[in-house]
């Protein structure tokens, strides 16, 4: 299948690049771009393919991050076991939120608002509770080893996140060629029509939000392993939600490669801005917000849509 | 007589103060092509919504294929064999014609390749063959109506509820659609394709109703005011009054004398 | 649990804050009722207005209440321009696009403020910021009392505009039946922009009443967003009365929540109300069933 070949090529390319490079700057760039892609791909599953726009996707990210940290610190879990737990709990939270909101038929703006509300609730809870370290957050002690999922060089982390990105790509490709994916997109395009021809819209949407949460939770766990720190603002705050959303939209929602493209472009933009203006608080977000507005105004199908439109124009005979 | 495929008993629903459907009872026999007609606002589409599970009746029951399905969710009704189309067509605009129909096929067929193949066959059957790879959003009205029909057919229904499948078509397009609808029920003249699907259609295009329907129900202001063969029903005074206004029937008769 | 004096004080506080909340929510519900869009940038607009009032005071010595004739028209112009120039263009009628654009605008505004003003919290000092008034067993700051009065007055003005002026009639016509209104010769785009402008003007007025009793930092708008949305949803999207009643109710809920649960956890009360309303009674107290 074309998609599988492309994904394999991508993995080989990035893997080869990683092995070949030694520059800390480049490796960090690749790692963070892949990390951003993972978040965008996660959002894309629910937003692009499912048509449900979540404005509080950090809910699953933060859940994954805190479980990863708490499982190791308080429960003595091995880092890899913690990862499994992080993903599982994130999925459970998604199932709960999804079951509740979709059961009552929330969609569009209302759904976006509710996801935002849930993320905020978790943030407040994280600030108030003691087992989450309160407002101060949690720190993971430095102990580099494969078994502990902490690597001396960026290459180890890149391998880890690349694995997740490839998995997300595979899942997205599966959506494009499967019954579940067809039903999900039908619900996105026209829920009533889909129901009339036998699609269980509620079940399909829950499947999508759970799938999305798995990758978002993995992203959160990854963050904790790389930076060895998490606090309520980082975990559940709007920055992460916005990053995931904007990258997916900029690159092109509902496409296989859109989120990666968007994440890479935005990350590059962020780096450029930082080089030009220094590390100013809020600058990154101003860029993200402006790009979002501009893209929605002028290129709503995202950057990958531009390529597609041009190709369509050239391919189809005018009649 | 055979067991009716669809049976409504005393179905009513009101929205706020408006009684949209009042005490409607009817029975659809399997293997028939029947029609539901009535002036605008009579409650025909609401009745379809009640049958297919998009609305739950305040009173009354809906039985399908021997089972009580009152208020059952639409997707479960589709699985049981009742599929409805929409008056305002609802294509999955971003997807191709083939992909659209495949969603319907997926109700019975879990495998992607098989569903796509089934979609292709059904598209040929309703005359959408050449447009299979066209994005659904780019079809003409006639094309979208056929797509709506094809997608519903792909679910392998026992009963098809067609809501104004001919609305918005020009006479040529209507003439092309009529045999397609007839073939769904009775198979085509050359015996190439099997029929066997029961069809209940809401229609305004009287030409189609006279041509196709074996039995007609007339709905006005939420009530069933007449039923019978197309000829009987169009001669019915109450029906004429419902469409053309109070006293028209007498005036028409007076003018004829 | 608490003695009557503290409880009364808390409720009074909640009511006065609630009135200002109501004014903010009025703008939001007007925008939704007419344009049918959920303005995610509403909180950011409040922040912009608060900074405007702050700067007018610290740079030019203009008292917040006297700044009303500057800030309100200014915010109106901002709203008109945003709707006509950006949101309308980007929205193209599709709900998701409008959602994303207002989100984008809010992100840009909030983070521009962060860049320019850093994250410090600032407040102003006027002759009356520290004075208090005794009402029954409670003492309440004078500024809050004035805020209450101001908010009520502004709401009354808004109501008058909507019911007694031609613009108000046009707005109500467009809200009810856009296409019919267009056929009657009403310039719908203009009405939309006017509405958005009025919505932001409400926020401007609220800022003038709010700052003396409150403070400003780049994130303050984000803090008001959940409150404003909860009120609008509780009162009923598009319902004027709903926004007023909802505002007062939520003000009290927040105050009592803070009293019983503490500062940070008390915030949860708002969100719980919000989620509960959306799930179980999405039309709110006074809204029309969708």
Approximate strand percentage of chain A: under 5%
List the quaternary state of the chains. heterotrimer
CATH class of chain A: Mainly Alpha
User: Structural class, from secondary structure content of chain A?
Assistant: mainly alpha
Describe it for me?
- The complex is a heterotrimer of chains A (319), B (257) and C (290).
- With 319 residues, chain A is mainly α.
- Chain A has one domain: ABC transporter involved in vitamin B12 uptake, BtuC (Orthogonal Bundle), CATH 1.10.3470.
- In chain A, helix 1 runs antiparallel to helix 6 and helix 4 packs antiparallel against helix 9.
- The longest helix of chain A is centred in the last third of the chain and has 27 residues.
- Chain B is an alpha/beta fold and 257 residues long.
- In chain B, 39% of the residues lie in helices and 23% in strands.
- Chain B contains 10 helices and 10 strands.
- Chain C is mostly helical and 290 residues long.
- Chain C is built from 11 helices and 2 strands, in the order H-H-H-H-E-E-H-H-H-H-H-H-H.
- In chain C, strands 1-2 form a two-stranded antiparallel sheet.
- In chain C, strand 1 and strand 2 form a beta hairpin.
- The mean pLDDT of chain C is 85.
- Chains in contact: A-B, A-C.
- At the A-C interface, helix 5, helix 11 and helix 13 of A face helix 3, helix 4, helix 9 and helix 11 of C.
């Amino acid at each position: 299948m074309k998609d599988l070949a492309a994904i394999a090529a991508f993995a080989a390319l990035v893997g080869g690049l990683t092995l070949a490079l030694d520059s800390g700057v480049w490796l960090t760039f690749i790692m963070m771009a892949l990390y951003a892609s993972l978040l965008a791909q996660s959002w894309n599953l629910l937003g692009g393919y499912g048509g449900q726009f979540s404005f509080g996707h950090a809910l699953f990210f933060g859940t994954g991050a805190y479980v990863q940290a708490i499982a190791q610190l308080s429960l003595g879990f091995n880092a890899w076991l913690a990862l499994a737990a992080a993903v599982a709990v994130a999925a459970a939270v998604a199932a709960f939120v999804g079951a509740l909101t979709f059961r009552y038929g929330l969609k569009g703006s209302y759904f976006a608002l509710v996801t935002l509300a849930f993320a905020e609730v978790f943030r407040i809870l994280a600030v108030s509770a003691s087992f989450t370290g309160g407002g101060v957050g949690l720190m993971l002690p430095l102990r580099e080893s494969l078994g502990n999922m902490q690597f001396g060089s960026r290459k180890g982390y890149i391998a880890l996140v690349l694995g997740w990105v490839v998995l997300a790509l595979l899942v997205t490709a599966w959506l494009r060629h499967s019954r579940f994916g067809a039903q999900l997109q039908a619900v996105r395009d026209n829920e009533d029509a889909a129901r009339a021809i036998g699609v269980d819209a509620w079940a399909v949407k829950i499947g999508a939000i759970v799938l999305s949460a798995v990758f978002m939770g993995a992203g959160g766990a990854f963050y904790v392993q790389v930076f060895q720190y998490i606090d309520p603002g980082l975990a559940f705050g709007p920055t992460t939600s916005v990053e995931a959303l904007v990258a997916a939209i900029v690159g092109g929602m509902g496409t296989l490669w859109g989120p990666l493209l968007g994440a890479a472009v935005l990350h590059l933009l962020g780096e450029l801005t930082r080089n030009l203006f220094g590390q100013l608080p809020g600058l990154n977000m101003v860029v993200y917000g402006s790009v979002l507005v501009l893209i929605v105004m002028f290129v709503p199908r995202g950057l990958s849509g531009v390529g597609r439109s041009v190709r369509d124009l050239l391919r189809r005979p005018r009649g | 007589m055979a067991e009716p495929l669809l049976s409504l008993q005393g179905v009513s629903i009101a929205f706020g103060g408006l009684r949209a459907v009042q005490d409607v009872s009817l029975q659809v026999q399997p293997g028939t092509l029947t029609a539901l007609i009535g002036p605008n606002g009579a409650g025909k589409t609401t009745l379809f919504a009640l049958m297919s599970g998009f609305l739950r009746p305040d009173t009354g029951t809906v039985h399908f294929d021997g089972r009580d399905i009152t208020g059952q969710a639409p997707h479960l009704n589709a699985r049981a064999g009742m599929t409805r189309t929409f008056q305002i067509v609802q294509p999955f605009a971003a997807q191709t014609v083939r992909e659209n129909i495949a969603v319907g096929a997926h109700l019975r067929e879990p495998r992607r390749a098989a569903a796509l193949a089934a979609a292709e066959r059904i598209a040929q059957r309703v005359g959408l063959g050449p447009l299979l790879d066209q994005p659904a959003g780019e079809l003409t009205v006639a094309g979208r109506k056929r797509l709506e029909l094809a997608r519903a057919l792909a679910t392998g229904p026992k009963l098809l509820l067609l809501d104004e499948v001919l609305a918005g078509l020009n006479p040529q397009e209507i003439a092309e659609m009529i045999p397609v609808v007839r073939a769904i029920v009775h198979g085509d003249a050359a015996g190439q394709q099997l029929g066997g699907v029961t069809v209940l259609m809401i229609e305004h295009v009287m030409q189609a109703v006279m041509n196709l329907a074996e039995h007609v129900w007339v709905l006005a202001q939420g009530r069933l005011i007449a039923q019978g063969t197309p000829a009987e029903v169009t001669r019915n005074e109450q029906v004429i009054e419902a469409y053309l206004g109070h006293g028209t029937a007498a005036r028409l008769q007076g003018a004829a004398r | 649990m608490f003695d009557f004096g503290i409880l009364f004080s808390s409720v009074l506080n909640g009511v006065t804050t609630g009135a200002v909340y109501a004014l903010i929510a009025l703008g939001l519900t007007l925008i939704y009722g007419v344009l049918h869009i959920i303005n995610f940038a509403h909180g950011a607009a409040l922040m912009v207005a608060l900074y405007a009032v702050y700067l007018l005071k610290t740079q030019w010595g203009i008292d917040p209440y006297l700044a009303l004739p500057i800030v309100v028209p200014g915010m109106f112009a901002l709203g008109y321009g945003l709707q006509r120039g950006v949101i309308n263009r980007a929205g193209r009628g599709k709900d998701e696009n409008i959602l994303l654009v207002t989100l984008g605008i809010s992100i840009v505004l909030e983070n521009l403020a962060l860049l320019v003003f850093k994250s410090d919290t600032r407040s102003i000092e006027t002759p009356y910021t520290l004075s208090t008034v005794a009402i029954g067993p409670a003492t309440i700051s004078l500024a809050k009392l004035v805020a209450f009065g101001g908010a009520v007055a502004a709401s009354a003005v808004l109501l008058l505009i909507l019911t007694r002026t031609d613009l108000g009639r046009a707005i109500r016509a467009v809200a009810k039946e856009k296409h019919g209104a267009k056929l009657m010769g009403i310039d719908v785009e203009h009405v939309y922009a006017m509405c958005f402008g009025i919505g932001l003007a409400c926020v401007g007025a609220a800022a003038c009443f709010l700052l003396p009793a409150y403070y400003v930092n780049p994130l303050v708008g984000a803090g008001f967003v959940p409150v404003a949305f909860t009120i609008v949803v509780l009162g009923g999207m598009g319902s004027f009365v709903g926004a007023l009643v909802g505002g007062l109710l939520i003000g009290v809920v927040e105050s009592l929540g803070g009293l019983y649960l503490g500062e940070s956890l008390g915030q949860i009360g708002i969100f719980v109300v919000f989620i509960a309303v959306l799930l179980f009674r999405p039309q709110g107290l006074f809204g029309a069933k969708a």
